[in-house]
Specification:
Blueprint: H1 15-37, H2 40-57, H3 66-84, H4 100-105, H5 108-134, H6 136-147, H7 152-159, H8 163-190
Helix pairs in contact: 1-2, 1-3, 2-3, 5-6, 5-8, 6-7, 6-8, 7-8
Length: 191
């Protein structure tokens, strides 16, 4: 059972199954995109792109792992969207010239809190980005189990692994994160 994976394995999605897959997963994909993008318009756009990508690749997607594939694809598309839009400064940012009065009225402590929160958020993104590059299966297991708060039995089934294998993947991923990022986490916690 462990070797099925996202592609290949049991069977592909036929055209008649696509509508069923769409109906069963549309809200999860949208909520995932909304959670990571924090923007309804972006979430709607990403959701459409994810299902378009599924439709195009439907012959290569394992039906038993399609839910995990959709969630992972949505997260990655949001990450790519954020990366591509990184250079844009959002309205209301405290460092914009037109909002300089906000800097004057804010206390130094408020500004330090904002900067610390931003640094912490970037740290978390770095961890997940590095985890994705280290081992995509660990990344899927961690994000689906802990961020999307899916039951571990469901995650194991969607990933095509036994519950014991999922537990092992989660354990190894957490240990890798702790070894690699403990010092930086402690430093951020002291600030």
């Amino acid at each position: 059972m462990e070797g099925k994976g996202i592609t290949g394995g049991m069977g592909s999605i036929r055209s008649v199954d696509f509508d069923k897959v769409y109906e069963e997963n549309i809200s999860t994909v949208y909520r995932t995109a909304l959670y990571y993008s924090e923007d309804e318009n972006v979430a709607e756009e990403i959701t459409q792109e994810v299902f378009l990508k599924l439709y195009i690749s439907r012959e290569n997607i394992n039906t038993e792992a399609v839910s995990a594939w959709l969630v992972t694809t949505a997260k990655n598309m949001v990450r790519n969207h954020k990366r591509d839009c990184w250079h844009e400064v959002p309205k209301g940012d405290i460092f914009e010239d037109e909002d300089s009065d906000l800097l004057v009225s804010s206390t130094e402590e408020d500004i330090m809190t904002i900067l610390h929160d931003k640094e912490y958020h970037e740290f978390v993104e770095k961890i997940f980005g590095d985890l994705y590059h280290m081992n995509e299966r660990w990344y899927d297991a961690i994000t689906i189990t802990y961020l999307l708060e899916k039951p571990q039995k469901e995650v194991a089934e969607n990933m095509g692994v036994s519950l014991e294998v999922l537990h092992s993947m989660l354990y190894r991923a957490k240990k890798w994160i702790q070894r690699k990022y403990r010092e930086e986490y402690d430093r951020l916690s002291e600030i």
